[in-house]
Amino acid sequence: MQFVAGPLPVILNFTSTPMDYVIRPLTSADETLLWDMLYQALQTSEGAPSRDILKRPEYARYVEGWGRGGDTGFVVSDKNTAEVLGAVWYRIPKSDARARAEPSEPTPELAFTVKPGQRKRGLGAALLTQLVKATPHHSALSIRASAKNPAVRLYERFGFQIVSDTDGTVTMRREV
Asked: Between 172 and 88, where is the model more confident?
């Protein structure tokens, strides 16, 4: 009997992990949820700041009065427990709202967080994908983040580029 060596058969084993989360659009009723998400976004590896930081205008503007025209975002929750795991949202800054009549489009500012302990599961990418697909009419989005924030790499994968780097904070912009 003679054995002829040949290519071994390739066995592909596709296992799919069912999605254990759901993504839904944010509504005007979600302002309280967004305050918590904003607080989560401001936490660093050094710890959590006082919740009073949310009263500062440079942060409050991302949430205060949520649900006005142009406010857009999504929240991701655990499919079984309904625990909120993260959110992505943007709004056109109030100072730019008057500029809508001008030919140049105001740049919406993005806010984004996935809770610690839920990161590196693809939730951030799923949220950003949902946002980008749902809002193709915006030619640009901007976001500010710590230059040390690992999410900067995620933003770069979605086409964001650093346009300024000041005192360890980067401003990134995505042009469509």
From this structure: 88
